[in-house]
Structures are given as structure tokens and as C-alpha cells.
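Researcher: Re-running this chain for the archive, since the previous output was lost when a drive failed. Same request as before.
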Amino acid sequence: DKDTCETLSPLVPTSEEITTIKSYEGNIEELDVPGKLFIELQKIPRLANRIKFQLIFFTWPESAAILEEDLESVGDAVKEFSSVEGAEAMKNILSLVLSIGNYMNGGTLEDKLSE
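Model: Regenerated C-alpha cells:
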């Protein structure tokens, strides 16, 4: 489940840790619990990728719902600005944003070129 994947994700051995684990020649029974866990985890092929995939799988419905809401908002905005009034409002908004940007930058490019 999702909670298990979130718990396991930070425990996945790094490539350096796997190299260290594979070079261990001592008695595995003498290792502490985390050492034994790393020994077992490194045996699972592509564990990090598998856990990432599972997390995506478990969170996909929620992520898709958020994305769907965002796309609907964009669609609504496009519909709103497709009308004549909406297009004029958008022109005014962009003009205001440009004016604010020019003020923050100390003027327009034309002003700077004429200096």
C-alpha cells in the first residue's frame, strides 16, 4: 500500500551502500537489524524504481483529479477571453502587467536606448 511505499522509499540502499553490502564478507547473522535489512533490500532488482512506480500508481487518481481541475480552469479562462469583452479585458491586464514590469525594471527598452 501507499504507506508502506512511503516508509520503504527512504530505506532503499544507495549505489554506494549496495557496493559496501556486496563487499561484506562477514557472518550476516552478526549484523544488526538495519544491516540485515539492507542485505535483503539490495537483493530486490530495481527496488527504487519499483517503489517510485507504486507511489505514482497509488497517488494517480488524486493527481489526475487535481490536473483535471486545473485543465478545466484553463478551459474556462480560454472561453472567457474568447469573447470580445474578454479579449479587451485580457489586453488591459497584459498592458498593466507590462507597465508594472517596465516600472520595476526602470523603464522600457526604448527609454534606455534613447538615453
